[in-house]
């Protein structure tokens, strides 16, 4: 399964200005957000993490300027349980997709603060990898192709409809993961 960021998108990110990079990562993490927020909602003592995640996703959409506290945000995010080493690795469906959502935000915050195309490509790669896994586990799913299409749209300079499409895609992903949980 090819899950790396499309060459054209990666090249456009390397040639793009910081604002395009910030828009790209905001859209990527918006699509992944339901996989953290929805899967961790109601988990004891994670309320502050949920609030932080949601606020960070919201703030990433201010693509016209970098976040001034990005270093602090990355430091806080890196203390999330999802990014801590696990002796047995990550094996459960919920933990796997929550991990991908947190890692996506980690790269998005870094790219947003620095304008780094490399961090933006990493952010996109995480989203593609997660959607490739979801496709492998759901017959006939097209999440990977949808993510590729939305990533291409994110770098074309036209932001109209990008937020709406990203929110709708994120909800669809969340429903698919919930469907995996309800199978015997």
Kindly state the mean pLDDT as a whole number? 91
How many strand elements?
Answer: 0
Under CATH, the topology is which?
Answer: YP_001051499.1 fold like
Order of helices and strands: HHHHHHHH
Write the layout of secondary structure elements.
Blueprint: H1 7-15, H2 18-40, H3 47-60, H4 70-77, H5 93-114, H6 117-137, H7 143-154, H8 162-181
Helix pairs in contact: 1-6, 2-3, 2-5, 2-6, 2-7, 2-8, 3-5, 4-5, 5-6, 6-7, 7-8
Q: Can you put this structure into words, describing what you see?
A:
The longest helix is centred in the first third of the chain and has 23 residues, at 18-40. The protein is built from eight helices and no strands. It has 184 residues and is mainly alpha-helical. The chain has one domain: Up-down Bundle (YP_001051499.1 fold like), CATH 1.20.1590.
């Amino acid at each position: 399964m090819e899950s790396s960021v499309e060459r054209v998108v990666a090249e456009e990110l390397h040639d793009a200005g910081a604002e395009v990079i910030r828009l790209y990562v905001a859209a990527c993490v918006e699509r992944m957000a339901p996989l953290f927020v929805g899967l961790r909602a109601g988990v004891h003592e994670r309320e502050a993490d949920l609030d932080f995640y949601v606020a960070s996703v919201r703030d990433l959409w201010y693509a016209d300027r970098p976040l001034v506290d990005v270093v602090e945000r990355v430091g806080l995010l890196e203390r999330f349980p999802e990014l801590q080493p696990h002796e047995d690795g990550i094996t459960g469906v919920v933990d796997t997709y929550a991990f991908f959502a947190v890692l996506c935000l980690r790269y998005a915050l870094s790219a947003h603060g620095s304008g780094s195309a490399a961090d933006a490509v990493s952010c996109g790669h995480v989203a593609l990898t997660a959607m490739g896994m979801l496709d492998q586990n759901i017959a006939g799913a097209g999440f990977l192709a949808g993510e590729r299409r939305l990533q291409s749209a994110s770098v074309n300079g036209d932001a109209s409809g990008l937020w709406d499409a990203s929110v709708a895609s994120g909800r669809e992903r969340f429903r698919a993961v919930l469907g995996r949980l309800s199978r015997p």
